[in-house]
Structure formats: C-alpha cells, structure tokens
Design goal:
Layout (H helix, E strand, L loop, with lengths): L3 E9 L5 E10 L4 E5 L6 H9 L6 E6 L2 E2 L10 E4 L11 H11 L4 H15 L14 H13 L5 E5 L7 H18 L2 E6 L2 H7 L2 E6 L2 E6 L1 H6 L4 H6 L6 E9 L3 E5 L5 E3 L2 H7 L6 E6 L4 E3 L9 E13 L4 E7 L2 E7 L10 E7 L4 E4 L17
Parallel strand pairs: 3-8, 3-9, 6-7, 7-8
Antiparallel strand pairs: 1-2, 1-4, 4-5, 9-10, 11-12, 11-14, 12-13, 14-20, 15-19, 16-17, 16-19, 17-18
Helix pairs in contact: 2-3, 2-4, 3-4
Length: about 375
C-alpha cells in the first residue's frame, strides 16, 4: 500500500471557475480517509485528480514516492469504485472481476486465484456465474468492489459508491467496506455527501465547502471541536442549532439572544474567550442532544433554562425530537423518552452550558478554536 500526498493542488476549468483551491493534505499508508461536503464542494473533483481522470492545474500529487501528475490512470496503481458500478452487462460476475487482470496479461491460474479470493472476502462465491441484470443492488456493489480488490492496488478510491442503495442496504454495505478495510489494511479514499457515512467509516475526515478544505480531523474531534460554523452545522444529524445574539455584561458576562428571547450566562472558558466580544454580535451553537427538558433526571452539568413554545413533537421510540420556538429563534432538541407537553404548549428547556459553541458573526470561525480551518489534524 502507499501514502497519498496533495501539495497545493488546484483545479481551474477553462471558464476560470476554480473547483478546488489549494488542497494540501496527506493520507497515510493504510488509512481510511473520507472526503465529505455538499454537492459542488470539490470532493469528487479532488478524487478524480488523484485517480488521473481530471488533470491538475497547479500543485503536486504523490502516490507512494512517485509524482503522478502526468502519469495516466492505468499506470498509477490505483483502483476506483464508481457510483454507478460500471459493470459490463454481457459478462458474468467472474468475467467482470477478471477483465482488468486479463488486460494486464495475468495467467489464467493467477486470475482464478485472485477472483476466488476476492469473492470469498465479499461472500459472492455463489453468484460468480450470474450476469449483472440477475443481481440486486447490493450484490452489484460487491462485484464492483471485488473488481477493485483483485487488482491489489496501492490505493482504493470510492466515489459515492452507496448512493444508489436503499437506506437499510447502505448501512449494511458501509459496515462491510469498513470491515474490508480492516482485513486488507489498504489505503482507502472515500467520497460521500452523507456525513453519517463519513463519521462511521473514516479514520479521518476532510470536510470541503466551495472548493476549500474547511477542516481535517478525526470524526469525534470534528464533532466536538468544529473550527467554524459550516463544519459545526454540516457534521451531526439533526444539525447544530444556531442562535444570533450579542455578548453583554449584565450580572456578569452573558449571551443574549436577539429580541431578548433568552439569556445564557458565560462562565469559565466561555467568559474568557468572549470577553473581547463584549457589546458585539456572535452566534451561539448547541447540538440537539445537549438540550434537555428542564427538571429531567438526564441533565448533566450546569444548564441555562429557557421558556419556549413547542411546534412539533416527533416520538422516535428510543428518543424524542422536539422543535420549539421563541420569537424568531427555533431550537431542535433530542431527548430521552419521557413525558413532554403536546405541540402548541409551552415548555422549559435546559441548555447544557459545557457543550455550547460560539462563532464569530462575520467570519464564521469558532471563537477560541485551537486550529485554523484548513489545518490538518
């Protein structure tokens, strides 16, 4: 296997549209890295430049010890799994998996050995003689992955491979791909717009937006320590709540939501970080699971209580998702099963003060963040 290094990579199209701005990061040997972001953020373009399917406008790309900017895809020793599977409909599963090896003039014995090994890993031995039209979506995806495995490449590339599958099958296949990574110890780069896939599969995650890398970090660090408002809102489902307000000194330093909808006392590290923002507007962020029903036995740590009006209550069995409003502010809370008022009634919520984040109103950067937005972990 091999490491992959991107040094100041840019992709600029003929109309001067910059699809990827100055991407610099390293994927270590044997690491599973996920590129994630909304549609049009540049993640697939970055993957295609690594694969050699898109030219690199500026910068240097290394796979192992080789600079591969001008090396064609077939000579980069990579294997790519596409969103649409790209299987040959007239060939059997065996022949689809063996096709690339035949082109490279491998012996019949070696081809059979590699195909059978891959089929065993993926559990598709019984379907080797079927054709793609006889397969389910999940089976086709396994065949596409198997075709990559038989190559024994230095790097595996996945371009949104699960987007055509139903929700249940997506969960199953992402588990299998993660298991496959552990078995092979391979270097894998995976592109998705689904932050749940990114959080559950990646050793590290590269969050992209508008062609720029926002943050590179482990899943938990991204979740707990986002470097800006975009990352905070993109990672997590339901997404983080954001409230606009101002930092004021009144019975101590406090955050006051616009319209005086509610107040949050600022103490400890928050008071220290926000002291220089006194009198200025900031954005408060808090995740739904860090909001409780006031008086609940599940509360942990200090809280600030706020009165709101319940708009929607969604009982999910293992949890309750509530949407509550006050003036122009809306908060989504995810709480443990417990008695709650009906929609249309008032409710007192408790905001966990240790889990509150604050963002600069203009730049969107996290106030007091330890790392710059584009810095790798």
């Amino acid at each position: 296997m091999a490491r992959v290094q991107l040094e100041h990579i840019q992709k600029i199209y003929d109309n001067d549209f910059v699809a990827v701005h100055d991407a610099s990061f390293e994927i270590y040997d044997g690491e599973f890295v996920v590129l994630v972001g909304p549609s049009g953020c540049g993640k697939s373009t970055t993957l295609r430049m690594i694969a050699g399917l898109e030219s690199i406008t500026k910068g240097t790309l290394r796979i192992g010890d080789r600079v591969v900017n001008d090396i064609p895809p077939k000579d980069r020793d990579i294997a790519m799994v596409f969103q649409n599977y790209a299987l040959y409909p007239h060939m059997t599963v065996f022949d689809n998996m063996a096709f690339g090896l035949k082109l490279r003039k491998y012996s019949r014995e070696e081809i059979e050995k590699r195909v059978k090994q891959a089929a065993e890993i993926l559990g598709i031995e019984p379907i080797l003689e079927r054709k793609p039209k006889q397969l389910s979506g999940g089976q086709r995806q396994r065949v596409a992955v198997g075709r990559a495995i038989v190559r024994k490449p230095q790097v595996f590339l996945f371009d949104e491979p699960l987007s055509n599958l139903d929700a249940k099958l997506r969960v199953q296949m992402r588990t299998e791909i993660s298991k496959l990574h552990r078995q092979l110890g391979a270097t894998m780069i995976y592109v998705t717009h689904d932050q749940v896939e990114a959080m559950t599969m990646g050793d590290r995650i590269v969050v992209m937006w508008d062609g720029h890398i926002q943050q590179i970090d482990t899943p938990l660090n991204l979740y707990d320590h986002p470097v800006n408002k975009f990352v905070a809102g993109f990672i997590g489902s339901p997404s983080m709540n954001f409230v606009n307000g101002r930092v004021l000194r009144e019975d101590g330093l406090q955050f006051r939501a616009n319209g005086n909808a509610f107040k949050v006392p600022l103490q400890g590290r928050h008071a220290e970080k926000l002291a220089r923002y006194e009198g200025n507007e900031v954005v408060m962020g808090i995740r739904p699971e860090d909001i409780y029903v006031a008086g609940s036995p599940y509360i942990s740590g200090p809280v600030a209580e706020v009165d709101m009006l319940l708009d929607v209550v969604e009982p999910m069995g293992n949890e309750i998702v509530m949407y509550a409003g006050s003036l122009d502010h809306t908060l989504v809370a995810r709480v443990m099963p417990q008695p709650v008022p009906d929609a249309g009634q008032s409710i007192r919520l408790a905001l966990g003060l240790k889990k509150v984040h604050f963002f600069d109103q203009d730049s969107g950067e996290t106030i007091g963040a330890k790392t710059a937005a584009s810095q790798a972990a």
